[in-house]
Specification:
homodimer; mainly alpha; Arc Repressor Mutant, subunit A; two-stranded antiparallel ribbon; 2 strands; DNA-binding; HTH_MarR-typ (chains A, B); WH-like_DNA-bd_sf (chains A, B)
DNA sequence: GTCAAATCATTACAAGCTAGAACGATTCTC
DNA sequence: GAGAATCGTTCTAGCTTGTAATGATTTGAC
């Protein structure tokens, strides 16, 4: 778990601003999610890669690196780890033998289903303070912020290793 | 700026869950805030320390480390940087000369006012998609989540260096 | 009243992670 | 067919961070 000094006591006055609360809760949510998938022996980056492969099977590592915003050299080690565990596999493209197209194995698909379960549990735990209507309201507000801020749906910068 | 692989394509179905949106937007907000205070030659940890000192002047470094959740050895370098720039000062406690009580200088207080301005601008930019009523709704929902999740008001784990 | 244990700040050290450049293999372009 | 470009990989250097040892000072026990 990551521990570091950070912004403290936001703009004094009417309590913390929305941006501070978003950063605080966002970091908390990411940390808790990392704990949960840690029970599946996965790190957040590994989970992100699994999901990206599932969303678009057959992509090259270069393309994935571009989408995920990570240097290609980092993907190599990540793919190695998942490959060794039999979750993804590299297939050489016969048409262009430079490329390694990535696919999920059946074990990878099975694990991804469990990740989805964990994600729902996580979501429910984070929003425990809110009823269904309030959760819908929150989701709508957040979606509008994410859209206006130009955030790529489904991608966000990573936090830390586990 | 930090770039790393992360969770992608959250629980398929009715779009991303709230927890994912929170993590995504939170990381984005933290990154943008880091950029803004970077214009003042400050990193997020430095800003956090300045605010913590302002909130409770005269604290020992040990006490601050405990509040901020950082190892004391890290605080030393942090305080050094701020001390060299004349923003905080260490005063030996005459009653217990082991302790270094920390205080803001007038320059530190002046800078803190500018940080507060930056914080307000930042908050406004992040919530640009929402009108005043919606911002109040969002703030209220977030505050309830933060409270229910047991988050210490004004403190959150740090992201990264600038 | 003195000596051992505890506390605080600091320094030294080691380990981990990351980004970027350099490197073979392969393919595209002219 | 030759040179430039692309892809995956490896290597390396830099940085950040946490833990452990150090020195000064205080507290508590006897």
């Amino acid at each position: 778990m990551n521990t570091a000094v950070e912004a403290v006591v936001p703009p004094p006055g009417p309590g913390p601003g929305s941006a501070f609360l978003l950063a605080q809760i966002g970091a908390h949510a990411a940390g808790r999610f990392a704990e949960r998938i840690g029970a599946l022996d996965l790190t957040p980056p590994q989970t992100g890669l699994l999901r990206a492969v599932a969303a678009a099977p057959g992509q090259s590592q270069q393309a994935l690196a571009s989408v995920l915003g990570t240097p290609p050299s980092r993907l190599v080690a990540l793919v190695d780890q998942l490959d060794e565990r039999g979750l993804v596999e590299r297939r050489r493209n016969p048409a262009d033998r430079r490329l390694h197209a990535l696919y999920l194995t059946s074990a990878g698909e099975e694990l991804l289903r469990r990740i989805a379960d964990v994600g729902r549990e996580h979501d429910d735990a984070i929003c425990a303070a809110l009823d269904d209507g309030e959760r819908a309201t929150l989701r709508a507000l957040l979606a509008r912020i994410a859209d206006e801020q130009g955030l790529t749906p489904g991608v966000h910068p990573g936090y830390r290793h586990v």
